[in-house]
């Protein structure tokens, strides 16, 4: 009887194959934030009592609330009120919160000789400071000797200014990602814009310079506090079938609705039908006034940015007047800098204009 052969598998020996390798990375970093605490009436705070403090408003860094405590008579009885004390305290619930701190008493003479105690930018032998629970503090009982403080440049007009920074330490670990899902950008503006263009569900009409515009009350109220009051407030318009809008041109109101629904500026040249920079600038000026009228802060800033780009000899006077009227301080500063340039003052007639602006407080 013949013996059958035993066939062995041809798979490779696992010991000879390369082992699979996976990786992960742990990253430890800080989430930074700061707060400036101004202490006025310093002399009146003396005598508050040892161990009693003046607290700053609460500020948030790294998901935790913090506060600055200033002890005008010091924190420790043994110092007999000879020093002022300064601390940063954890003002919210937290356990073993690790953080870096920096305290700066600002020199108010302009010499920038600030008194700084900082964990940042240096190697720490024992690592970041750990706050165990709510109310835990880091700081100095003997931050500054009172007699020296009161004759220093840190105290001016009976006022001290303290700048504190907090860096909350956190760690996270990332492994290999086996997926990649592309998330599109938000298109909510497109949806609302298409709603306006379709005309479906409109429940309010506006008459502007003889032209009728249909819109949706809820959309207008959600976007503009002025429309909210006009349509839903105690003094709301009774007749919403057709609300008349005074002192505004139809293209400007159309552009205003475009922004409210689409959340961006329309094509000014397409809107006006004029292919010129001057027409675009003029529309931007009207839009700025409309934005201020209806409390649309983002639109106001978009118009400011656009008008900053378009400042020119023939537009700066009107733009500056609008900036002054509607409290657009950044745009006003750009206009004044433009007017003050030597090349714009020479031979352009701008010097008398600049002098007039300065004399009325425009500077």
TrEMBL record:
Quick one: which pathway?
Protein modification; protein ubiquitination
Q: Which InterPro entries match?
A: BACK_BPM_SPOP, BPM1-6, BTB/POZ_dom, MATH/TRAF_dom, SKP1/BTB/POZ_sf, TRAF-like
Q: What is any Pfam family matched here?
A: BACK_BPM_SPOP
Task: Report which superkingdom the organism of origin falls in.
Answer: Eukaryota
A single GO BP term for this record reads: protein ubiquitination
Q: Tell me the ranges covered by the MATH domain, including all copies.
A: 32-166
What protein family does this chain belong to?
Belongs to the Tdpoz family.
Q: What does this protein do?
A: May act as a substrate-specific adapter of an E3 ubiquitin-protein ligase complex (CUL3-RBX1-BTB) which mediates the ubiquitination and subsequent proteasomal degradation of target proteins.
Q: What is this protein called?
A: BTB/POZ and MATH domain-containing protein 1 isoform X2
What taxonomic classification does the UniProt entry list for its organism?
Eukaryota, Viridiplantae, Streptophyta, Embryophyta, Tracheophyta
């Amino acid at each position: 009887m013949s013996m059958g052969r035993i066939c062995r598998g041809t798979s490779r020996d696992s010991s000879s194959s390369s082992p699979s390798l996976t990786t992960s990375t742990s990253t430890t970093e800080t989430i930074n934030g700061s707060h400036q605490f101004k202490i006025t009436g310093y002399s009146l705070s003396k005598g508050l009592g040892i161990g009693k403090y003046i607290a700053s408003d609460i500020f948030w860094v790294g998901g935790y609330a913090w506060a600055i405590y200033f002890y005008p008579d010091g924190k420790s009885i043994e110092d007999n009120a000879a020093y002022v004390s300064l601390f940063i305290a954890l003002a919210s619930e937290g356990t073993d919160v690790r953080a870096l701190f920096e305290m700066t008493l600002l020199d108010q003479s302009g010499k920038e000789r600030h008194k700084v105690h900082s964990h940042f930018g240096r190697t720490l032998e024992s690592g970041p400071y750990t706050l165990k629970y709510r109310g835990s503090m880091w700081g100095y009982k003997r931050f500054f000797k009172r007699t020296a403080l009161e004759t220093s440049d840190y105290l001016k007009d009976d006022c001290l200014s303290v700048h504190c920074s907090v860096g909350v330490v956190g760690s996270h670990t990332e492994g290999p990602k086996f997926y990649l899902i592309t998330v599109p950008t938000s298109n909510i503006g497109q949806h609302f814009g298409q709603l306006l263009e379709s005309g479906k569900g409109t429940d309010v009409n506006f008459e502007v310079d003889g032209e009728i515009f249909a819109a949706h009350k809820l959309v207008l109220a959600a976007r503009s506090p002025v429309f909210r009051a006009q349509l839903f407030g105690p003094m709301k318009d009774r007749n919403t079938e057709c609300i008349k809008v005074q002192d505004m041109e139809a293209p400007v109101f159309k552009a205003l609705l475009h922004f409210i629904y689409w959340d961006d500026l329309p094509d000014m040249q397409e809107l006006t039908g004029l292919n010129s920079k001057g027409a675009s600038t003029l529309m931007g000026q009207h839009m700025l006034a409309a934005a201020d009228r209806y409390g649309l802060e983002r639109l106001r800033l978009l118009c400011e940015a656009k008008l900053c780009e378009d400042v020119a000899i023939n537009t700066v006077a009107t733009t500056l007047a609008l900036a002054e009227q509607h409290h657009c301080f950044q745009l006003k500063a750009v206009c004044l800098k433009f007017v003050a340039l030597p090349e714009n003052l020479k031979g352009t007639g701008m010097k008398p204009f600049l002098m007039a602006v300065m004399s009325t407080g425009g500077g």
